[in-house]
């Protein structure tokens, strides 16, 4: 399940955010891309995290940043934070 | 070349409003990185900082003064008053022309700038306070010091982020050493606890959620601090001729640029900086007994600084004492160099090395004697103090005790 949905839904959203932040075409990014391959350094990482927080309305902790070294890890981290957010705020609540 | 005596020190920071108050806390290993007086709304991701807790502007300035004097310039002025008073210098017409004022700051008067933006963008009020420019200008501290003491020699302000006041002190030192001036009032100040600036630091993700633990296992980043430090440098013969008490001697200054990355440090830049400072001082690494480290408490800085120290100091890295006093007074950014230079000079003068506080355990990648938690009594003859700035600009100062 995660593989298909990642490739289509959340995965492509995350790739779009990374592409926009890095000013590179999304076609150059796949789920298997590592940040190293994409030449994403720590400063780029801060920008990407900031953009992901805005896009998904989540709060990525500083510790989380260090564990995201590839697109796949980033998608997994974002998914987890979205789930936590949905658990914390019941549907329909403000 | 002239020898350069240090004849005055002045300090305002989280540890106290004077040199002696701050030194007693440094020597006791007392960290004053405490809960923020304004935790932010919504709260900042960090809830502690090293504010100048005991500083009350009204004790030092008239209400009229404060109309034009921002917090960072207040720190510089109060520190300069203490330093000049200790030096005993009297600026007659000749000395006034032969004295320099050099200060460092990273951002200058942030509060007035933010106040202006609030009016403009939040309140849609285009009438920004008329003294915003003289309040915010980075040289406000240097200008006030020159005005207050009637100094007519070279006056300027250096801004190189966290290296600002080391660059300022280094420039002033070279001016006295070369004979361009007889004396210099130099150092720097910073006032970081302005909401916009704190939000920007928060977004940078380098501030520890609790306290800064330099070189320690489990360190999570830096702790922001504010304050100001000023030294009076004086031509050695001039100081001797008037019978001044010499607190120490500055003997070297080195600076370098990483040319590596805008925020990630390199090992080579800091290593060159230390090596060039030692060369400027005409000493070898084996002669250095104490290093007051940049030691921010971020994962990267402390590892890189350890490697840089090892690369320059070789076998003597095993015995040199290293500590980061940022663990007590926080990272005061543009003031860091000046505050830490004063801590370094006092360590030499008092034969006590202030510790690295908040240390919870060794990190194999920071395998130096970092004087954890407890100050150490040690006869130290020569000490250096490092600053490595965002932007990759480094500065190292070298001091000896009075000899």
What does this structure look like?
The complex is a heterodimer of chains A (94) and B (403). With 94 residues, chain A is mainly α. Chain A has helices spanning 2-8, 10-22, 42-56, 62-67, 71-88. The mean pLDDT of chain A is 85. Chain B folds into 2 domains: 4-241, Thiolase/Chalcone synthase (Peroxisomal Thiolase, Chain A, domain 1, 3-Layer(aba) Sandwich), CATH 3.40.47; 251-400, 3-Layer(aba) Sandwich (Peroxisomal Thiolase, Chain A, domain 1), CATH 3.40.47.10. Chain B has 14 helices and 14 strands. Chain B has helices spanning 19-28, 63-68, 71-87, 93-97, 110-122, 132-136, 140-149, 164-178, 195-204, 236-241, 268-281, 299-313, 326-329, 336-350, and strands spanning 4-12, 34-35, 48-49, 99-104, 155-158, 183-190, 227-235, 248-257, 290-292, 321-323, 352-353, 376-377, 382-388, 393-400. In chain B, the strands form 3 sheets. In chain B, strands 5-4-6-7-1-8-14-13-9-10 form a 10-stranded mixed β-sheet, sandwiched between helices. In chain B, β9, α12 and β10 (321-323) form a beta-alpha-beta unit. In chain B, α3 (71-87) runs parallel beside α7. The relative contact order of chain B is 0.19.
